User: Fold this.
Amino acid sequence: MALLSDALDPWIATLLALFLPPVLTYISSRRRRTPKHPQQKLTTPLRRPLTIVVALHTLYTAYTLLFARPPNLFTSLGLPLSAPQSRIHAALLVKLNETTLPPDFDALLARLASFEVRTVLVRFGQQTVQTCTYCKGLPDYALHFLPSLLLSYTARALILGLVTVSGSLRERWRGSGVAVLVVAALADAYWAYTVPIAIPRPNTRDAPLTMWHDMLFTARHALFLFLPLALHLAPPTARPPPARLTAQTLDAALARTHLLRYASAAVHRDAVLAARARVFWEREKGAGEEMRADDGVRAAALAAGIGFDEAEAAVEGDGWVGALKLSGVGPGSSPPRKEGPLRALARAAVESLMGLFQAP
Assistant:
């Protein structure tokens, strides 16, 4: 059923699909606020309104699929496609409980005198045949049927635009959803126009006639039913923090780093704080020694590339004597050892941060 007219409805739906999502995106961007706790569960104030939209659309589509299917003269009367006009006329009078048929049914029966029109009814439905008064062949009926088909897909593209509007945390699924609709629309139109219609002969074992319009209607609305629901329930995508927030975080971290330099020196000027710091670091040292002595921890650290075992350094030339001469250590000292991966990484990190602690 047309909202305004068959000519205006596709244009209105297309304009809404093009301009309504950008308007909602602008409104969402004006209302967006930076979350105080970035680690909290991903949510959005648009979640509840979008849930209501999806629920209403799901109910409407389910109602259309179950209770508002397009009429089909032959399936409702239980007649074969090759039934003569007189039989169709008598069956209609019985079903309508009338003595004469309405004018639109008389015009439909007159068009059904042509076998080609009956195949058009199988392809594009009874409503296309009944409402197109100027159509003469298959191309005319196809052009008459195409706007209503595109209108249904355009309306669902509008729904997908609402479900994946900016701020819904489902923006990355919009392209996939629209691509599915485009492919489905092309396949729907192509199949309805080109599928061969094989009418079974009476009293034979030929396969029953497939009413392709009814089948495509069911498949189309099943897609309309589940696609917006699937996108609405898809995993959310966290928005990357804005550059301004990142710069503020880095400035705060740098200020804390400078504060740490002054706080470390201030702790040792107070006897109580110095004692507490000494106890804390002794406790940390004991915990570290216990962890380093554990064979499981050593093996796991080595497998992760952060091992802290220091291997003996290989020295060429004069052997250990040459190494001792270079290091200035006496003959009674232990052999030189090579730093482990964890110590090397820690040394590199400290050296890279030493520039922050230099006096201006």
About this structure: The chain has two domains: 8-28+43-232, 308-360. The CA atoms of residues 139 and 220 lie 22 Å apart. The longest helix spans residues 138-163. Confidence is low (pLDDT under 50) at residues 33-40, 312-333.
